[in-house]
């Protein structure tokens, strides 16, 4: 046949039409959640890189009543010592109200928090030339009871963990895609076996293998889009609900579960990609099976 003929195979009545959309819907749902998790972790890692890289936190511990200087005076001494350190871009004392707010999720805002001798905090922006070890020693000598915390130390471990979980999420997507291909291959082979007599008749009438494969491809594409759109819609609704709930949770160290508009577009494309993968897999499976026929 020189042109594509009408779809003469009764594929709509196959048993594959009953379970394939549900399987595709489940796989698209899981894949969409995994892709969303990978994108969120990637966004968090980039946010941590830009927000904490090059920052230092100096803690000035409180002293007893018999100390020669007050806590505020000790903070001023630390700021004066920082003024002579090359590479210090900015040093800003953190108010006691803000410091108390940092520990409020764990200690509450009752009398315990008011009676607790909180250290004074100084937020420092440092350049790459600053020697943190030498800075610690300098401040400990100038103002005893002063410690320097470098977020970059634990930030590297946090980034490594985020990248690991992101890689695991992508591996999960790959495994789900492989399982989806296996399901489609099985469904295509089963459908071809059920319609073997019709396929033989089409060949006798002059139909090509490509014409037969086209019909299976369109059939699987229709079922995959039906299941993929349903599974993707449920996944997007779940992610939107989790994002909304994360905005109402207070006292958490993790940022809200938010996605940028381009990331939402990637999630919308998951059902389309799944349907295209299923259709291509069905076509290649049928063509390969037909080539092996005598």
UniProtKB/TrEMBL annotation:
Per the record, the coiled-coil ranges are none
Lipid bilayer topology: Multi-pass membrane protein
One GO biological process from the UniProt record?
cell division
Return the PANTHER family for the record: CELL DIVISION PROTEIN FTSX (PTHR47755)
> Taking the first listed entry, what is the main subcellular location of this protein, grouped into a coarse class?
membrane
Q: Where in the cell is it found?
A: Cell membrane
Domain ABC3 transporter permease C-terminal spans what residues? 171-288
Organism, scientific name: Nitrospirillum iridis
Query: What is the name of the protein in this document?
Result: Cell division transport system permease protein
Keyword annotations for this protein, in alphabetical order, are: Cell cycle, Cell division, Cell membrane, Membrane, Transmembrane, Transmembrane helix
Task: Give TM regions.
Answer: 20-41, 167-188, 223-244, 264-286
Q: Output the Gene Ontology cellular-component terms.
A: cell division site; plasma membrane
């Amino acid at each position: 046949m020189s042109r594509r003929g009408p779809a003469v195979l009764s594929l709509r009545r196959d048993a594959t039409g009953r379970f394939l959309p549900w399987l595709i819907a489940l796989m698209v749902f899981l894949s969409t959640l995994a892709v969303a998790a990978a994108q969120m972790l990637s966004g968090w890692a980039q946010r941590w890189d830009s927000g904490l890289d090059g920052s230092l936190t100096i803690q000035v511990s409180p002293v007893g009543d018999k100390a020669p200087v007050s806590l505020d005076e000790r903070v001023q001494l630390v700021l004066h010592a920082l003024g002579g350190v090359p590479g210090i871009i900015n040093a800003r004392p953190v108010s006691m109200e803000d410091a108390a707010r940092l520990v409020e999720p764990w200690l509450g805002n009752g009398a315990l928090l008011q009676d607790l001798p909180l250290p004074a905090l100084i937020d420092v922006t440092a350049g790459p030339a600053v020697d943190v070890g030498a800075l610690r020693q300098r401040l400990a000598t100038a103002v005893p009871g002063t410690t320097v915390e470098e977020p970059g130390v634990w930030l590297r471990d946090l980034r490594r963990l985020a990248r690991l979980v992101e890689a695991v999420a992508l591996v999960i997507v790959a495994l789900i895609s492989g399982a989806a291909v296996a399901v489609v291959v099985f469904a295509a082979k089963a459908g071809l076996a059920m319609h073997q007599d019709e396929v033989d008749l089409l060949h006798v009438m002059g139909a090509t293998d490509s014409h037969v494969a086209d019909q299976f491809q369109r059939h699987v594409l229709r079922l995959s889009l039906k299941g993929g759109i349903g599974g993707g819609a449920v996944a997007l609704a779940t992610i939107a609900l989790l994002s909304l709930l994360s905005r109402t949770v207070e006292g958490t160290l993790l940022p809200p579960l938010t996605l940028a508009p381009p990331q939402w577009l990637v999630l919308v494309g998951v059902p389309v990609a799944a349907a295209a993968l299923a259709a291509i897999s069905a076509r290649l499976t049928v063509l390969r099976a037909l080539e092996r026929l005598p």
